[in-house]
Structures are given as C-alpha cells and as structure tokens.
Amino acid sequence: MPRAIDKVDFEAELGVVIGRTARRVKAKDALDYVGGYTACNDLTAKIIPRPPESGSITVPLKAVDTFGPLGPTLIPVREVNPQNLTLLCRVNGVERQRFSTSDMVHTVAEVIEYITARITLNPGDVITTGTSLGIGIIQKPPVFLKEGDVMEVQIEGFPTLRNTIEWEKE
C-alpha cells in the first residue's frame, strides 16, 4: 500500500474478463462477449472525510498502485452461470463476506450493455461487478486492513486469490 493511504477496506468482487471486442452490445447477447470470470480483490482506500475534489472520487479511492489484484485462475464461461456464483472474502482466515451474484442489482449482461453503449471493450478488459454487504467500513466499529493481514477472495469451488497486506517502506 502506498504510504499516503492509511485506511484500506476489503471488497470481494466478480471479475468479468472480456473475450472479444464489444461495442453497443445488447444484454441478450452480452455473455457471448465474455472470455471468462475471475476473483477480484477490489481493495478500496477509505479517506475520511472524503476529499473535497470536484468530480468523481473514484481515483483516490480505487486507482491506487497495487489495488485490484485478480486471479489466480480464469474460469471458462462454459463452466459457470455468472448469476449463480458465491463470492467469499476472508481476512486472516475469518470470513468477512459471503454473497451470491444472484443478489446483484444489475446482471453481468446488463452491466456489459450499459458500459458498451458508451465505451468499447476489448479482449482482456476486466469489469468488476461491485460487492455486497460485509465491507469493513460498515462494521461497528469499522474494520480496516492492517499490515500483515492476509486477505483471501474466492469464487466458491475455484482456487483462492491470496494477498498479504503490506505498506511501502520508506
């Protein structure tokens, strides 16, 4: 973690890897453009209070060096239904999140339609689909990742993505 960040939250997410160029795709055809699925460790900086920047605050929260590791495997589309997967997040072996992609506000197909109405997606691009309840900042008291914590993100039934939390040394 960069030293400028002092609070980091855990967020397990489904990564949707695009398999072929997708532009102006309708939801009914959207899954034909998916190359596979993977686990995403969508680390998020928690800046409290939020910065008074104009526009989106996504950059200081999400676009941080080392954030967003993916893997460790690419699950072929033919092996899973993206709306019937269970995602897990464990911190130091303690389960912090467990949720089904069936609870997503928007389906993977709807997300692809929405994005490709505006942006062309290319093979290898990755969409992360968001997370469910259980993130650390909503806990009472809030729980943030600490130096040495081991964070695991898993799509149930597939290999686990494991990352050790470490801040930059001077």
Describe the structure using short key phrases.
4-stranded antiparallel beta sheet, 3 helices, 11% helix, 10 strands, mainly beta, Fumarylacetoacetate hydrolase, domain 2, 170 residues
DSSP E strands, number: 10
Q: Determine the CATH superfamily.
A: Fumarylacetoacetase-like, C-terminal domain
The radius of gyration computed from the alpha-carbon positions, rounded to a whole number of angstroms, is: 16 Å
Chain-averaged pLDDT = 89
Number of helices: 3
**Parts with pLDDT < 50 across at least 5 consecutive residues:** none
CATH hierarchy: architecture: Alpha-Beta Complex
The major pleated sheet works out as:
4 strands, antiparallel
Major sheet: arrangement of strands? 5-3-2-8
Q: CATH first level: which class?
A: Alpha Beta
> What does the oligomeric state look like here?
single chain
Based on secondary structure, the structural category is: mainly beta
Molecular structure report:
The longest helix is centred in the middle third of the chain and has 9 residues, at 108-116. It contains three helices and ten strands. It has helices spanning 27-30, 58-62, 108-116; strands at 8-9, 12-18, 34-41, 44-45, 75-76, 86-91, 94-100, 126-128, 150-155, 160-164. The strands form three sheets. The protein has a four-stranded antiparallel sheet with strand order 5-3-2-8, with no helix packed on it. The protein has one domain (8-163): Fumarylacetoacetase-like, C-terminal domain (Fumarylacetoacetate hydrolase, domain 2, Alpha-Beta Complex), CATH 3.90.850.10. It has 170 residues and is mainly beta. It is globular.
